[in-house]
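Give me a protein, keeping tokens residue-aligned:
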Amino acid sequence: MSELVILVERIIKAFKNFGCFFFESSELQRVRDVLVKAEVEKLVEVRPVDEKYPYIMAVIASRRGLEQECVSRVDSLLVKGSISQDEYKRYRKELIEQCIISLEKERVKEIVKILEDYLARVKQTQ
């Protein structure tokens, strides 16, 4: 198997199990190439895990746009009358956080699906 196939399989397995992918900074360019070719670069963020360990990197599902969408959803619950004003005041933060977690999980599933499709295309061309 080619290195590309092995790397894509590692990324898929990590996202399925943990919702993210950790790797060494020496693999950064190869990982970025995979993300661009698979067309998931807008759905993920590549960042160092910790300042103490600059050689360990992570690919995580991007939270961009999720918070605003969740705020809108929670506000619409109040407008529709699904929750009372008291419940809204009391649980607003928790509802938004639950919504973000839920949408993050959906984004991870979307990333895995796209990567699996990309893996199938790569295997087909070999």
Observations:
- Residues 3-125 form one domain.
- Strands lie at 20-24, 44-50, 53-61.
